[in-house]
């Protein structure tokens, strides 16, 4: 037995859950009753398992050097037990911060941002339809009632956002990063707003354009294929939402992004930023190489900051944070719903991907998404990442109609309005 094999055997001996490993030689280590077996086809792939480099191990699974027998939920139990400390946020060294800032500047031009968004979202609309809800809402759901299914929880999330923003008929509303349009349509059809959405995904733009025509909403809903930095409306908006966009901005552009939110709002208006945050302070990042895996296979250019940094950047523009809510457990459940739905239709999913990708590329994309959805579910369950809705106002020095003096915005400074019957 080699030194690496001995390290792996030691890990298996001290693991809290059963795991079986098959070496390239065909020899097997671990327990026979394990729900998960990791099969190594290349001896070079044993190193990441021995050292606890989850990202590198994931890459080897995607490339086919390693295969997994067993369900994703069982695999994530193994991951959590195998390297219990590797996923914890790790504080970067000074040179790492300097490199991040330089790298962020280099990879967040308008052209690169557009290419990175299309890399992820334009894989195949039919692929996303397999595991998303019927409205194709690709962000954290809100399980207002624990008995809700995914579709119900996504509608509840859309409504939660609209209620927080206190949307009113006739108001001008903008959705930065509109996805497949679910929030635009909910806001327009349920709350009577004039809605504008922007996206960098050609597939999403085409889908929303068709939906606008089919729903007969051409007079009050529109979608633009543009960068948030290039959005220049004739007049500022009353209300603004940014859902799942924040993660794509990059550290180098965070101040620009926050200033753009401020400038797009009229004085007294309200904005809601819904985005993922790392839970480690001081710009700590998720460890174990998981961030590197997501950067390579899922979200190139994605960068996470701590919620305190987000609030600071937003506040520096002159916006006032009036409410912040952590939906971390909701996102864990959402991701497990997506993962379970994909796992139940793997053959169909691969066939759909083969319609636009080569056979080998389709298999790689499917393996990457399987690991991504389950791995992110684990990260939110373990508290390595979180999801925050930050509600903001642009103060109005002239005052606003309110039963409280000094409100300075349309926010009523009480939470019950979100839950009152309408």
In N-to-C order, the SSE pattern is HEEEHHEHHHHHEHEHEEHEHHEHHHEH
For the record, the count of structural domains works out to 2
Radius of gyration, in Å, reads 23 Å
- Mean residue pLDDT: 87
Low-confidence segments, given as residue ranges, are 95-100, 102-108
CATH superfamily of the largest domain: Vaccinia Virus protein VP39
> What proportion strand?
15-25%
Outline type = elongated
Q: What's the CATH first level of the largest domain?
A: Alpha Beta
* Number of strand segments: 11
Instruction: Supply the number of helical segments.
Output: 17
Structural class: alpha/beta
Pfam family, one: CMAS
GO biological process, one term: methylation
GO molecular function, one term: methyltransferase activity
Keywords: Lipid metabolism, Methyltransferase, S-adenosyl-L-methionine, Transferase
Write a compact overview of the structure shown.
This protein is of the alpha/beta class.
Features:
elongated, 7-stranded mixed beta sheet, lipid metabolism, transferase, 16% strand, methyltransferase activity, alpha/beta, EC 2.1.1.-, Rossmann fold, 2 domains, 422 residues, 4-stranded mixed beta sheet, Nonspecific Lipid-transfer Protein, Chain A, CMAS
Describe the protein's architecture and organization.
Its EC number is 2.1.1.-. Belongs to the CFA/CMAS family. The protein has a seven-stranded mixed sheet with strand order 7-6-5-8-9-11-10. The chain has a four-stranded mixed sheet with strand order 2-1-3-4. The protein has 17 helices and eleven strands. The chain has two domains: 3-82, Nonspecific Lipid-transfer Protein, Chain A (2-Layer Sandwich); 95-419, Rossmann fold. The model is unreliable at 95-100 and 102-108 (pLDDT under 50). It starts with a helix and ends with a helix. With 422 residues, it is α/β, with parallel strands linked by helices. The relative contact order is 0.13.
């Amino acid at each position: 037995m080699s030194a690496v094999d001995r390290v792996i055997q030691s890990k298996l001996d001290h693991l809290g859950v059963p795991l079986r490993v098959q070496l390239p030689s065909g020899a097997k280590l671990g327990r026979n009753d394990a729900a998960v077996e990791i099969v190594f086809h290349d001896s070079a792939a044993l190193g990441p398992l021995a050292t606890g480099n989850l990202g590198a191990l994931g890459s080897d699974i995607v490339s086919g050097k390693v295969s997994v027998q067993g369900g994703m939920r069982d695999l994530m139990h193994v991951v959590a037990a195998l390297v219990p400390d590797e996923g914890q946020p790790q504080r970067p060294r000074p040179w790492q911060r300097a490199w991040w800032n330089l790298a962020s500047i280099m990879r967040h031009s308008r052209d690169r941002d557009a290419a990175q968004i299309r890399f992820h979202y334009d894989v195949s609309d039919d692929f996303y339809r397999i595991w998303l809800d019927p409205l194709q809402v690709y962000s954290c759901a809100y399980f207002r009632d624990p008995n809700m299914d995914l579709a119900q929880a996504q509608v509840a999330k859309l409504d939660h956002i609209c209620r927080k923003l206190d949307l009113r008929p006739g108001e001008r509303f903008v959705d930065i990063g509109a996805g497949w349009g679910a929030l635009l349509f909910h806001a327009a059809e349920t709350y009577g707003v004039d809605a504008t959405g922007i996206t960098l995904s050609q597939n999403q733009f085409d889908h929303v354009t068709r939906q606008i025509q089919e729903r007969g909403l051409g007079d009050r809903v529109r979608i633009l294929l543009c960068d948030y930095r290039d959005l220049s409306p004739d007049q500022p908006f009353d209300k603004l939402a940014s859902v799942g966009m924040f993660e794509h901005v990059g550290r180098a552009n965070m101040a620009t992004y926050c200033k753009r939110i401020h400038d797009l709002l009229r004085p007294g208006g309200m904005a809601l930023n819904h985005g993922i945050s790392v839970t480690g302070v001081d710009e700590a990042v998720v460890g174990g190489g998981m961030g590197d895996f997501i950067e390579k296979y899922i979200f190139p250019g994605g960068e996470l900051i701590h919620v305190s940094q987000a609030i600071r950047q937003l506040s520096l523009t002159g916006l006032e944070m009036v409410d912040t809510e952590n939906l971390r457990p909701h996102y864990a459940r959402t991701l497990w719903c997506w993962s379970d739905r994909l796992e139940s239709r793997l053959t169909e999913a691969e066939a759909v991907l083969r319609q636009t990708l080569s056979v080998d590329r389709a298999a790689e994309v499917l393996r990457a998404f399987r690991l991504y959805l389950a791995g992110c579910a684990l990260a939110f369950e373990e508290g390595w990442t979180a999801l925050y809705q930050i509600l903001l106002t642009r103060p109005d020095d002239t005052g606003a109609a309110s039963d409280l003096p000094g409100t300075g915005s349309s926010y009523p400074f009480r939470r019950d309005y979100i839950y009152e019957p309408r």
